[in-house]
Amino acid sequence: MDMEWWVSQPKIELHAHLNGSIRDSTLLELARVLGEKGVLDIAGLEHVIKKNCRSLPECFKLFDLIHVLTTDHATVTRITKEVVEDFAAENIVYLELRTTPKKNESIGMSKRSYMDAVIRGLRTVDAVDVAFIPSQTSSENSITPVTGACETTRKKIYIRLLLSIDRRETTAAALETVQLALEMRDLGVVGIDLSGNPIVGKWETFLPALKFAKEQGLLVTLHCGEVPNRKEIQAMLDFVPQRIGHACFLEEEDWEKLKSSKIPVEICLTSNIMTQTIASLDDHHFVDLYNMKHPLVLCTDDAGVFSTSLSQEYSIAASSFGIGKWEMFQLARDAIEFVFADDTVKKDLREIFDSAERKLRI
Ligand code: 6MZ
Q1: Cβ of residue 80 lying under 6 Å from some atom of ligand 1
Q2: More exposed terminus of the chain, fewer Cβ within 10 Å: N or C?
Q3: In this predicted model, what pLDDT tens digit does every residue of 269-309 receive, in sequence order?
Q4: Mean pLDDT across the stretch 332-348?
Q5: What is the pLDDT, as a whole number, of residue 255?
């Protein structure tokens, strides 16, 4: 089956990091601008950005570099807009975009102003209808599509935001992010993610913030088992988050716990292979989870950093695991049940999939 097919089917993206999803061309442009200003030595930088396969530690070095390039308000707004346009262009109908609110006092950036820049980006997307991002004057939960482009070429995309806690952060910083998420609920923030370099930081540091988030009704997803860390994996599963990402290094007992808990897993095939977290697709836990009908959703993780797209992830899963068109369509549709948005959005998404099923004649 060709890529055109995977692009044409509606899809749901639940694990996408904003700064990992930036277009290569934008990153290179930003690097060149800083290079010309003498702020950055760009010798070899293009090679780093264009490199195709990097280990997990190399990835986190790259993220530090990306953050140097992107962490000012105007750039955050720009990349948000571009990332949403890119996802919408390949028929993602619901996107949960996650990002780590950042502070940079030297340029007057607070976690709140960083997030305001993200929201501005969402409001300026002009190729699509961004649904459910309330405008300043609208009341909570009102649907306010951002309009401006020609109706016939428009696609509709629902966006929700997750605020990420970086594993480098302190308990106080993590609590600040949760507090911010609560303040921004009216602006499409629905939950909290725990991410960052998995060999950095301790579970106990983040637990108070994650517990607080849960108590306040925010939904939580955790990067779980990206490296072998038995104690942490067990503690994460005992926390019973609403979803987990990756789940690569679970041992037998953890699998049992995961399977009986029915916690949905965000699967990022290319990311796992590129970072050498999983040796080959033949060894990927997708197969086992899929065969036993465990809730799972295919995601990109960092479409820019790993040069992939959600359509490509669908294509890879279908060809590597021998799954047919109809089954892949159902896999995408099943993800509606794991989104962090409310029932009205879920109902709308079901209708979108029903209508696509009729049109595509699967
Ligand atoms: C863990 C990851 C990640 O938040 O600046 N991030 N954390 N594992 C991964 N798998 C490879 N990919 C990305 O987006 C970039 C940040 O997301 C997290 C890292 O903290 C990275 O710095 P934002 O928008």
Answers
A1: no
A2: N
A3: 999 999 999 999 999 999 999 999 999 999 999 999 999 99
A4: 96
A5: 96
Atom of ligand 1 nearest to the CA of 164: 4
Give residue 244's pLDDT band: very low, low, confident or very high (50, 70, 90).
very high
Q: Are residues 183 and 264 in the same domain?
A: yes
What Å distances lie between residue 233 and 226, 285, 338, CA to CA? 9, 16, 21
Whether the CB of 166 sits within 6 Å of ligand 1? yes
Q: At 179, is the pLDDT very low, low, confident or very high (cuts 50, 70, 90)? A: very high
Please check whether residues 124 and 53 belong to one and the same domain.
Answer: no
For residue 270 the two structure tokens come to 């290319």
Query: Both 134 and 271 in a single domain?
Result: yes
Catalytic positions, please? 226
Spatial distance between the Cα atoms of 349 and 358, rounded to a whole number of angstroms: 14
Residues 149 and 46 in one domain: no
- The answer to whether residues 311 and 6 touch, using CB atoms and an 8 Å cutoff, is yes
Gap from CA of 11 to ligand 1 centroid (Å): 22
Burial class (CB in 10 A: 0-12, 13-18, 19+), 204: exposed
Distance 301 CA to ligand 1 centre (A): 8
Shortest-distance atom of ligand 1 to CA 166: 20
Q: How far is CA 224 from the centre of its chain?
A: 14
Ligand 1 pocket member 162 (CB < 6 A): no
Q: For residue 26, how far is its CA from the centre of ligand 1 (angstroms)?
A: 18
Task: Report the number of distinct structural domains present in the chain.
Answer: 2
Index of the ligand 1 atom closest to the CA of residue 245: 8
Containing domain of residue 53, as a range? 24-69
The alpha carbon of 312 and the centre of ligand 1 are apart by a number of angstroms equal to 20
Using an 8 Å Cβ cutoff, are 265 and 287 in contact? Answer: no
Are 131 and 199 in a shared domain? yes
Q: Are residues 274 and 322 in the same domain?
A: yes
Q: Is the pLDDT of residue 139 over 70?
A: no
Instruction: Give the model confidence (pLDDT) of 197-239 as tens digits.
Output: 999 999 999 999 999 999 999 999 999 999 999 999 999 999 9
Give mean pLDDT, residues 180-207: 97
Tell me which residue has its CA closest to atom 3 in ligand 1: 196
Whether residue 55 is found in the same domain as residue 197: no
Q: Kindly state the tokens that stand for 249.
A: 């290094």
CATH number at residue 125: 3.20.20.140
100 lines ligand 1 (CB under 6 A): yes
